[in-house]
Specification:
Layout (H helix, E strand, L loop, with lengths): L1 E10 L2 E11 L4 E5 L6 H8 L7 E6 L2 E2 L5 H7 E4 L11 H6 L14 H13 L15 H14 L4 E5 L7 H16 L3 E5 L3 H7 L2 E6 L2 E7 L6 H8 L7 H7 L4
Parallel strand pairs: 3-8, 3-9, 6-7, 7-8
Antiparallel strand pairs: 1-2, 1-4, 4-5, 9-10
Helix pairs in contact: 4-5
């Protein structure tokens, strides 16, 4: 589904990504973890071409993303940003409807298929009852679900999420992760940065650990969080952390 080959990226004179190479299969949840500043958000933005890779290549379904028209790329991959700030009174329905725009030609009206896709996206995320509400009136968890609905409305095969459960309570966090499991069953490919290592181990099929812009680990989730990795990357000791001891014994 997604191939990344020797990707490097610098920002403001600092190298943020260093020779990233990985591939991600279809219909799976791929977790991206690492300390703050390790390059997770920058990698996601390179994949969907918010940032253009300065070195290396990103391929989607075998095609170099650099050669794709923006509208075509937007119909194949969608990004749900982290903690978006919504300062304008757009309705939930109108925002989700924007997910159909990459499929429209100039001056083309929305057809019945597009409206049905939007309705399914609202139903899948349990946000249909919010359709007339303004985003400025919603809680953080509700906004995240609405943004995922917009991503679903694009019918993109690949959905990127930047820490979708950050700052949410446990109920909203679990609702979003359970939704990602359902999307996986529907054939969607998910690449999500995750700040909660418990969630990463429980819900993700593969884990990529970034450290200082480079890949420290890339492989199955059950092999990712060794004591060495936790100490070297996250600078914590299992012996000194009751939470991580609980995590270490968490059933998958």
């Amino acid at each position: 589904m997604l191939e990344i080959n020797h990707l490097s990226f610098s920002f403001g004179g600092r190298q943020v990504l260093r020779d990233i190479t990985a591939s991600y299969g279809s219909a799976r949840i791929h977790g991206l973890v690492g300390p703050n500043g390790s390059g997770k958000t920058t990698l996601l933005k390179n994949i969907c071409r918010i940032y253009r890779p300065q070195e290396g290549q990103v391929k989607l379904l075998g095609r170099d993303c650099k050669t794709m028209a923006r509208r075509q790329l937007s119909s194949l991959v969608s990004l749900v940003p982290q903690n978006p700030k919504v300062n304008f009174p757009i309705s939930v329905y109108d925002l989700v409807l924007m997910g159909r725009y990459p499929h429209l030609k100039r001056f083309q009206a929305l057809n019945n298929h597009a409206l049905a896709v939007v309705e399914r996206a609202l139903q899948a995320t349990n946000t249909a009852h919010l359709r007339e509400r303004s985003l400025t009136e919603l809680s953080g968890g509700e906004v995240q679900l609405v943004l995922i609905a917009r991503a679903l409305a694009t019918e993109a095969s690949l959905i990127l999420l930047d820490e979708p459960t950050a700052s949410l309570d446990i109920g909203n966090s679990l609702a979003i992760m359970e939704l990602l499991l359902e999307l996986k069953k529907q054939g969607k490919t998910i690449l999500t940065s995750v700040h909660d290592l418990n969630q990463a181990r429980r819900f993700c099929d593969t884990i990529t650990i970034l450290e200082d812009g480079a890949i420290y680990f890339y492989g199955p989730s059950e092999k990712a969080f060794t004591e060495t990795a936790l100490e070297e990357v996250f600078r914590v000791s299992l012996a000194d952390s009751a939470n991580l001891l609980e995590f270490h014994s968490l059933p998958v």
